[in-house]
Write a structure and sequence with these properties.
The complex is a heterodimer of chains A (353) and B (809).
Chain A lengths: L1 H15 L5 H12 L4 H9 L4 H40 L22 H15 L3 E2 L5 E3 H4 L11 H4 L16 E3 L5 H9 L4 E10 L11 E11 L4 H16 L5 E5 L5 E10 L16 E10 L1 H6 L8 E8 H9 L12 H4 L6
Parallel strand pairs in A: 1-4
Antiparallel strand pairs in A: 2-3, 4-5, 5-9, 6-7, 7-8, 8-9
Helix pairs in contact in A: 1-4, 2-4, 3-4, 5-11
Chain B lengths: L1 E3 H4 L11 H11 L3 E7 L7 E10 L7 E6 L6 E5 L9 E5 L14 E3 L2 E3 L2 E2 L2 H4 L21 H4 L5 E6 L13 H11 L10 H10 L9 E4 L5 E10 L8 H9 L7 H13 L4 E4 L7 E6 L4 E4 L5 E4 L4 E4 L4 E4 L3 E2 L12 E8 L1 H11 L4 H6 L8 H15 L4 E9 L9 E5 H8 L5 H10 L3 E3 L4 E5 L12 H12 L20 H16 L3 E2 L5 E2 L1 H7 L18 E2 L4 H14 L2 E14 L3 E14 L5 H14 L4 E4 L17 E11 L2 E9 L1 H6 L5 E8 L1 H4 L18 E10 L4 H8 L7 E12 L4 E10 L8 H17 L3 E2 L3
Parallel strand pairs in B: 11-14, 25-28
Antiparallel strand pairs in B: 1-10, 2-10, 3-4, 3-6, 4-5, 6-9, 7-8, 12-20, 12-21, 13-20, 14-17, 15-16, 17-18, 18-19, 22-24, 23-24, 26-27, 28-29, 29-33, 30-31, 31-32, 32-33, 34-36, 34-37, 35-36
Helix pairs in contact in B: 7-8, 8-11
The chains are: A alpha+beta (353), B alpha+beta (809).
Chain lengths: 353, 809
């Protein structure tokens, strides 16, 4: 009997092996395990056996039956997966055809490098409680010069080549110009608020200057100003060092030397140790080891007065940062003219992800 | 400006062995930027006189010789020499290895065609004596062997500082060596030697006094730019070459020696910082000098032999007949000192800075004189300058003699001292230092300020030479103290500040949000183009703009302010279309609209452009803009062209506008934007081959508004909704949106939306089938079958009114 069961099992297995369709498997199942199947027939024959024989044969038959059911289920699962996989194969996509290997569609978006660096600096200052201000590009002489302690015919006006506008009527006294520096926002910022305050003002400025790889007629600056009760040179140096550390992600050696700007007194030029040669002297720093980075100083009393602030009660510092210069240093950009020329071959290098 | 350390040493004791790098750094950190320094004569100290002993042909090269020579000490030296004039027995100059020549060449041991050369025999050019020379220098036979060329030529080693003129804009006192020496004295902590003090001046006045009547008298018109004019006559002058010391000093500071009299005027200017002018007195007609403003336009030939166009209001110095000098700027060719000059007239004057600057700027004529006067010079320095000049004339032309009394005309000369009161506390507060009073007083005194006052308050009297536009208030004094103690010696301190929340202003937030969305979600790249455009580009675009024009533009391509971002975008797209088969870019920037009242109305615009070389990107663009508006929480709808309601950003009649691919954007009720695909005709002009779609949005009106997210939560519906899907057939030309538009007329409050499910075009039958889905929801009840039936019927009958019927099966 046991042999009979074993041969039935192997018969069932070999019957299933060639089958590939679910229906055929099910009909094989009926042949063996159905009501009139071969297993049922054996089951029926058990009825005529002695109780002892039943005891030994019964479990054998059940075990064979379970084994068959298990084989059957495996076969059915196998066929189902095969079917699905066949279908998937038919629907197969080319998984190598990703955007970045296509001539079209591989474009990432990206920010202008100015935007990237400007945001970084804004974040540094926002974290230190500075507001971020904005102002007009077309200015009058008051905001660009007079209020900043640069009266008409002051030689300092020569230092900044100014674009002037034709005026519809020629007899107007106040002449319009394109702002030559973001320092105009010092005046606007002061007139709009009461001390103490601190703010920065990034923005576009214009100089009537021949363009070349390092000079632009349109470029970006970032102005900063802080006015309070006892704001000092020591505070100014602290903020500048903190700023530079954040920008360059390391301690940067700086030096402060006298610099003349009519709107600050004392006025400084802040130099940083050349990052290319670490101060040993190279072509970038003209062999001096230092790179001129930002003019700064204590706000001139006349400028505070122009902003309706009493210089005997309040003091403050101001600084101007050449944003484009910083962008060029950050990325090693060799020609400032790329910033405004609309050429995507330049901009697409700065994509953000 | 060039400053010679040797000259400075006339007034300050400076150690010959001082570290020049250190001195340069001290000066830069304490006074003004040294752009570079140059050691003069360093090579001459190492180059010695040699005698040629033998000469033989170089075995490998025809034109080269092997020259054996000595410098007097038996030791024979050998060099390879290419000079044609080398001959045995000649004396010449030998530069050993290690010497750096003025042309920058450092001599290193090197083989020339296989033969080792131990340095070189030098030409005049290599010694730095001339621009060009042929062959090596030939010295007289009696030139002493072994002596350095520095000694032989009686030259001095010198250090030349090239100081950035811009950093001296506010320091008229530093435009001469004497003033500079005052700073050097402070830097090296030595006392300034002043050979031209008051007692010297009194002495000189006595020495050069002649009570006879002056051959040339002076008349200054008060309307002129003159602040004072001294003149004195000398006779029996011998004009000739200047002595070596004088020539060398002028050469050291970049001036060309001419003759002793002209050289003296330059020397005194470079020494004391005050310009002066010396006339050939015999060329002054009528025995008088008249300082006045010109009445009318006049041409004048300046010393440099150029004709200058003077206008009325230019101040000139005239004799009885004609202008002789353009005040404060340059003398005329008609009265200068020449070799024939016998009698001279010395002018020392002061002029109004503003007027000198105006005239010099207008003429484009910047001189050593004008660049000093425009800084506002101190009138109190005039007499000193005059007597120093006479001193030198007498020294170089000993037979000269002053004739007549010193002449002066102009405002009464006096200095009403500026007094500034400042407290020690304030100095320390502003600098962030703890300086003692003694230190402060020492510094100010060394700079020749007079300090008085008790305890905490200092009364500081400003010397006249610092009182012209330089030191005016306490902040100026704080700078003097700060720069002398050294800003590097101030310890950085973080201030104690109030805590106040800060955030970006609305405008900055909007710009940030727009950039973030377009970059991250729109896959677009940010570009920037020039805010100034030119006629050529505008004509190419057929853009007519009433714009703000610049007076002094650098080129015609950038001579007016843009009123739209479109022309710049087209130019950029034309460039990028050549390099990319597709791109998405945007610019967020200002346009500048002329404004009658405020001159200009600066508006923040956004221009987004999508390009594809083969297919239209228009729908992608408009979808992106719609999503952008959602992202920035500003309500906007794209609307179709309407004859009455035009957008404010681009003329819909512009030839670049596409006939079909066009929308306006109604933003918060106003039509503030548009989108279109560039008309192929315009695309052709820019050689743009594919399809360029772009949108322009004027953001100005809501840039400063706060934007609040409009999300309103509703509880989830408790009752199921129902969808009604149906397909209608319409003419091919009808837009899907038109069908939706008709459906909006159905007023059933349970309808929550109509949407397009699918569109199937049957081009051959000139029709299309649109499958629509209307969704119903009643939040308070289950929708009844009867209600749905009747609603569906209402919808279909509404469409029927426009001739839109269900698709026939």
């Amino acid at each position: 009997m046991k042999d009979q069961l074993d041969s039935l099992l192997s018969e069932f297995e070999s019957a299933l092996t060639p089958l590939t369709e679910q229906a055929d498997v099910l009909s094989a199942k009926a042949n063996f395990l159905g009501k009139k199947g071969k297993v049922s027939e054996i089951m029926k024959s058990i009825g005529g056996m002695s109780p002892e024989e039943k005891k030994t044969i019964g479990p054998l038959v059940n075990a064979t039956k379970d084994k068959m059911l298990s084989i059957l289920q495996d076969k059915l699962n196998f066929i189902e997966i095969e079917k699905i996989n066949q279908k998937l194969e038919k629907e197969k996509i080319d998984i190598t055809l990703l955007d970045d290997i296509k001539s079209e569609g591989g474009t990432h978006g990206g920010y202008h490098p100015r935007t990237i660096v400007q945001k970084e600096i804004e974040d540094v200052f926002l974290s230190m409680g500075f507001e971020v201000l904005d102002g007009p590009h077309v200015e009058d002489e008051f905001h660009n010069f007079e209020a900043l302690n640069i009266p008409a015919d002051h030689p300092a006006r020569d230092m900044q080549d100014t674009f002037w506008f034709h005026h519809p009527s020629s007899d107007v006294e106040k002449k319009q110009l394109l702002r030559t520096h973001t320092s105009t926002i010092q005046i606007r910022g002061m007139l709009e608020r009461k001390p103490p305050f601190r703010f920065i003002a990034p923005g576009t400025v214009f100089r009537c200057e021949r363009t070349d790889a390092s000079h632009e007629m349109v470029f970006n600056q970032l102005e900063g100003m802080m006015v309070g009760k006892d704001v000092s040179v020591a505070h100014l140096i602290y903020f500048m060092k903190t700023l530079l550390k954040e920008i360059f992600k390391k301690d940067v050696k700086v030096r402060l030397r006298p610099g003349f700007f009519p709107f600050v007194e004392p006025g400084f030029e802040l130099d940083i140790n050349c990052l290319i040669c670490n101060g040993k002297g190279c072509s970038v720093c003209k062999k001096t080891g230092w790179v001129e980075l930002l003019p700064c100083g204590m706000v001139h009393p006349n400028v505070l007065r122009a902003g309706n602030i009493d210089p005997d009660e309040w003091s403050g510092f101001a600084f101007g940062l050449g944003l484009d210069r910083l962008v060029m240093m950050r990325y090693g950009i060799d020609d400032i003219r790329y910033f405004n020329n609309g050429d995507l071959r330049f901009y697409e290098q700065f994509h953000s992800f | 400006m060039l400053i010679s350390l040797d000259w400075i040493k006339d007034f300050v004791e400076i150690d010959d062995n001082i570290d020049t790098k250190e001195l340069e750094s001290l000066f830069t950190l304490g006074v003004a930027e040294v752009e570079k320094t140059e050691v003069v004569g360093d090579h001459l100290q190492k180059i010695r006189i040699a005698e040629v002993l033998e000469k033989e042909k170089h075995p490998e090269a025809d034109k080269l010789n092997l020259v054996t020579f000595h410098v007097g000490d038996e030791k024979k030296l050998k060099v390879v020499c290419g000079a044609p004039n080398v001959k045995v027995g000649m004396k010449t100059a030998y530069a050993p290895l290690g010497v750096t020549l003025p042309n920058g060449l450092t001599l290193e041991p090197k083989k020339i065609r296989g033969v080792l050369s131990e340095g070189m025999l030098c030409s005049e050019e290599e010694l730095g004596f001339s621009e060009e020379s042929e062959g090596i220098i030939e010295l007289p036979a009696d030139a002493p062997l072994g002596v350095t060329t520095l000694e032989y030529y009686k030259l001095k080693k010198d250090l030349i500082f090239d100081i950035d003129n811009k950093s001296l804009t506010h320091r008229p006192d530093l435009w001469g060596h004497f003033g500079m020496a005052r700073e050097f004295a402070l830097l090296v902590d030595k006392k300034l030697k002043n050979p031209y003090d008051d007692s010297w001046l009194e002495e000189a006045k006595k020495k050069y006094s002649d009570k006879t009547s002056a051959p040339v008298t002076i008349k200054v018109e008060t309307s002129s730019s003159c602040l004072g004019y001294f003149g004195i006559s000398l006779e029996n002058i011998e004009v000739g070459e200047s002595p070596e010391w004088l020539k060398n000093r002028l050469l050291a500071v970049g001036l060309r020696p001419i003759n002793n009299i002209v050289d003296i005027s330059n020397y005194v200017m470079c020494e004391l910082g005050h310009p002066l002018h010396i006339f050939d007195r015999d060329l002054i007609e009528g025995g008088s000098i008249h300082i006045k403003k010109l009445d009318a336009h006049e041409n004048f030939i300046t010393l440099d032999e150029k004709e200058r166009e003077l206008i009325a209001d230019d101040t000139v110095i005239c004799d009885g007949q004609k202008p002789l000098v353009l005040a404060g700027i340059m003398g005329g060719l008609n009265s200068g000192v020449t070799e024939k000059t016998k009698n001279i007239f010395i002018e020392v004057a002061n002029w109004k800075a503003k007027e000198v600057r105006q005239t010099s700027t207008r003429l484009g004529l910047r001189t050593d004189s004008s660049s000093r006067y425009e800084k506002s010079l101190d009138s109190m320095q005039m007499l000193k300058t005059l007597y120093r000049t006479i001193d030198l004339v007498m020294e170089l032309s000993p037979n000269a003699k002053v004739v007549g009394e010193l002449q002066y005309d102009g405002p009464v000369l006096s200095y009403d001292p500026i007094k500034i009161t400042i407290s020690l506390d304030k100095i320390n507060r502003i600098l962030g230092t703890q300086l003692k009073k003694e230190k402060v007083v020492d510094i100010l005194t060394a700079l020749e300020f007079n300090v008085e006052g008790s305890e905490n308050n200092l009364d500081v009297i400003v010397p006249s030479f610092r009182a012209t536009k330089d030191i005016e208030c306490d902040a100026d004094l704080i700078e003097e103290i700060g720069r002398v103690i050294g800003y590097d010696n101030i310890e950085p301190v973080g201030p104690q500040l109030d805590i106040r929340p800060v955030e970006l202003q609305n405008r900055a937030k909007l710009s940030k949000d727009i950039r973030d969305f377009l970059v991250m979600n729109g896959d677009a790249t940010e570009v920037m183009t020039y805010p100034m455009v030119g006629e050529k580009l505008l004509e190419k675009c057929q853009f007519e703009q009433n714009s703000l024009k610049l007076i002094n533009s650098l080129s015609k391509d950038h001579d007016q302010m843009r009123t739209s971002l479109v022309p710049g975008m087209l130019e950029s797209a034309a460039l990028n279309g050549k390099n990319f088969s597709s791109f998405k870019s945007f610019e967020l920037g200002r346009v500048y609209m002329p404004d009658d009242k405020n001159f200009v109305n600066e508006r923040l615009h956004l221009c987004v452009s999508f390009y594809n070389s083969s297919q239209s990107t228009y729908l992608d663009l408009v979808n992106t803009i719609n999503r952008l508006f959602d992202y920035i929480n500003i309500s906007s709808q794209p609307i179709l062209r309407h004859p009455k309601f035009k957008n404010e950003v681009l003329d819909e009649g512009w030839v670049g506008v596409h006939p079909f691919e066009f929308h306006n954007f109604r933003v918060m009720g106003k039509i503030k934007g548009m989108a279109t695909t560039l008309h192929p005709l315009m695309a052709r002009k820019f050689k743009i081959k594919g399809s360029l779609s772009f949108a322009i949005i004027d953001l100005e009106d809501f840039a400063d508004k706060s934007r609040v997210a409009k999300v309103k939560y509703k509880p989830l519906p408790k009752f199921p909704g129902s969808n009604f899907d149906y397909t209608v057939t319409v003419p091919l030309s009808m837009n899907a949106g038109d069908v939706l538009e008709k459906l909006r007329k159905v007023k059933i409050k349970e309808i929550i939306s109509h949407a397009i499910v699918d569109v199937f075009e049957e081009k051959d039958k000139d029709q299309k089938h649109i499958t629509l889905r209307t969704s119903f929801l009643d939040r308070n009840a289950t929708l009844s079958g009867d209600f749905l039936k009747s609603s569906e019927a209402t919808i279909l009958s509404e469409l029927e009114k426009s001739g839109i019927g269900l698709k026939q099966a």
